[in-house]
Fold this sequence. Notes:
Layout: E1 7-11, H1 20-28, E2 32-36, H2 41-44, E3 49-51, H3 63-69, E4 88-90, H4 111-149, H5 152-155, E5 163-170, H6 174-181, E6 190-198, E7 202-210
Amino acid sequence: MRHFNPTFHFIAPKELAMPNEYKLYCKEQNIKFQEHTAFNDKIIAEADIFSMTRVQKERFSDLMEYERVKNVYILRRNMLGLARENMKIMHPLPRVNEIAYDVDDDPHAYYIQQAQNGLYAREAIFCYTFRALHLMISRMIKRLLIEQYGKQKERQVAAIENGTVIDHIPAEKTYQVASLLGLDKLVTPVTIGNYYASKRMGKKGIIKVSDKFFYHGRNLPIVCSGSKSSAQYYQGL
């Protein structure tokens, strides 16, 4: 606020005077201020923005003092005769009796629109928060799906010109099959996919080995070979 060279007028009973730390802050920032206990049209005439709150009973240590001042700080329409043309009256709402209802229709009254703007601001915050939450949850779900099933494009076993595709392996046997084939010792491209959805098996595994063929003569407990993108089904261990 110091960049706008304002002057603050603090109007309150002594019990609710502006705390010293705020006045000290104003002094440190070279912000001018004045304190008042009287509330009248001359003070209102000094304002561009007039912000009101209720006289807060809970802040009084002496309830007799509250009873004495609770009806002193009431804004009435006849107090606005000297007000600047563009002055706006603000209030967080709801009110008790500190703004008379005849002020509501005065062109200086802005607190109804202030409340409406507050509604829009909260809606925007909720939308931003829920959108951010939705994006976060979506990303978490996507990451979990990727970790469990792999990226969709990686789930597709591309056709190979030469090699072997072993399909429909029981999911719990996939890595056992890979071990029996000694795939960890190969220097050709090997793709292993597991727990893919299968209408016939529920969950299945698939192994693709490029430029490699497996035949009966290898004395392996599986028999599966193919070329030109063809494949024979896994027969079981």
